[in-house]
Amino acid sequence: MKIAIPLTDTDEFSPHYGGSSKFAVVEVDPRHRAVRRRMIVVPPESEPYSWPLLLRAAGVNLVLAGGMGRGAEMRMVEHGIKVLAPLQWLVQIRRG
User: Fold this and answer.
1) Section 68-92 average pLDDT
2) 2-95 CATH pick, 3.40.50.720, 3.30.499.10, 3.40.50.2000, 3.30.420.130
């Protein structure tokens, strides 16, 4: 399974999907509860409408986001990517 997490320009968790500039993609093995691989995916343009295609091409199955609009969520689902948002606890951890 590959999970995408939106990041800011400074590699911090982006509290909202639309404010992110790149994604941390983590490949996990749920059976062994282990991380297999980590990588950063940088969209070629800042247009969020193209991001579902990019993430699907990277093999992403799930996006974890602090917040995501309904339209963005629908585009992810249309490309076979599940969305878990809002994750307010992630935003709270980031803010300390």
Assistant:
1) 83
2) 3.30.420.130
| pTM: predicted TM-score of the whole model, two decimal places | 0.83
On average, the pLDDT of the chain sits at: 86
Report helix, strand or coil for 82: strand
Cis peptide before 86 (omega within 30 of 0): yes
Cα 49 from Cα 41, distance rounded (Å): 15
Q: Which of 56, 49, 59 is nearest to 27 (CA)?
A: 59
- In the DSSP assignment, the letter for residue 87 is -
